[in-house]
Amino acid sequence: MATTKNTICLWFNKDAEEAARFYADLFPDSQVAAVHRSPGDYPSGKAGDVLTVQFTVCGIPCLGLNGGPAFTHSEAFSFQIATDDQAETDRYWNAIIGNGGQESMCGWCKDKWGISWQITPRALTDAMAAGGEQAKRVFAAMMTMRKIDIAAIEAARRG
Q: What is the CATH number of domain 1-72?
């Protein structure tokens, strides 16, 4: 990770390591690469506290920074995870929601740390990319959903 040119930095209060380990356990091509402790006291922590965590989420390099409560996450940033079937969609969605997260609409949910996730089946993105009446029907169906129901998306696409 040290040679990566661009890394997503995610600000956490004090639990960057817990979040990184959760993501690494849940998603493929994800890992915690390093945990760095602060060499001195800082505004929201003390020497020896976990300051940063280097990790990847589905191959995307990230840095978790335990910066304290000054800043929080919003839906303006989200990870979009493409899924291949309902079982994979359900597994990610249920893990995030079941670990203190919150459901939202149209395949969006938020984990307990406030990070937003779009759990997006390829069946949905493929149908939307088809355009025309198919996309209109699929879009209307999606707008009624929380977790995406692939069978309902496919039925809407067929008309």
A: 3.10.180.10
